[in-house]
Amino acid sequence: MGVSTSCPEKGIAVVTVDFPPVNALPVGGWFALADVVRSAGRDPEVRCVVLAAEGRGFNAGVDIKEIQARGSEALVGANRGCFEAFAAVYECEVPVVAAVQGFCLGGGIGLAGNADAIVASEDAVFGLPELDRGALGAATHLARLVPPHLMRALYYTARTATAAELHAHGSVWRVVPREGLRAAALELAREIAAKDGELLRLAKAAINGIDPVDVRRSYRFEQGFTFEANLSGVAGRVRDTFGTKGA
């Protein structure tokens, strides 16, 4: 359980997240993920990072039960941890390929949205159930995956989009059977890692530099509204219904 790194092939590091039962990460998990991704990117032998997960789904966001138990301390920690993990993926010195299976929700959107490429299983779904959980955020990253009006509709309704739909929008590289997900992600990573390592790092910095939206500042702006919702009491009122029948 936790975050681990393996190097199955020359030039490729696989960062795997494993927080049973649904990969809803506690505060410490987000910071650990940020540290591991940054470390992999700094390794001069690594030319591509694959971000993967064990279990039923890629990522279910933050651990709501931890926030309910620890209150504002956990909320601030989760905000900071997500910010660091999303930034680590975006700022990783080499390209990051996200291998997404099952559900990719909340914080999962922040990770996948900041990756350089996404390979998804046929059962993968992407969405932000934030309004159902007393939170706001990651619209910055969902906007990198779908067109603006679809992003708004998905955000307001807390509905999900399938991997096939995202593939049609061009944000998912390939959609494959679940059993072939890791192989497909490694295939893309292998093609990327075949390039000159120094040039890849320059390319990553150059592409980040021409992005029309500063994802760090944009996401931080969103997080301010999450904190406002918490201070006003509305976030707690909604969170208290989490996991209850009919919620």
Automatic annotation (TrEMBL):
Keywords: Lipid metabolism, Lyase
Pfam families for this protein: ECH_1 (PF00378)
Keyword Cell division: no
Gene3D superfamilies: 2-enoyl-CoA Hydratase, Chain A, domain 1 (3.90.226.10)
Superkingdom, natural source: Bacteria
Coiled-coil spans in chain: none
PANTHER family: (7AS)-7A-METHYL-1,5-DIOXO-2,3,5,6,7,7A-HEXAHYDRO-1H-INDENE-CARBOXYL-COA HYDROLASE (PTHR11941:SF169), ENOYL-COA HYDRATASE-RELATED (PTHR11941)
Family of this protein: Belongs to the enoyl-CoA hydratase/isomerase family.
Protein's name in the database: Enoyl-CoA hydratase family protein
Organism: Streptomyces caeni
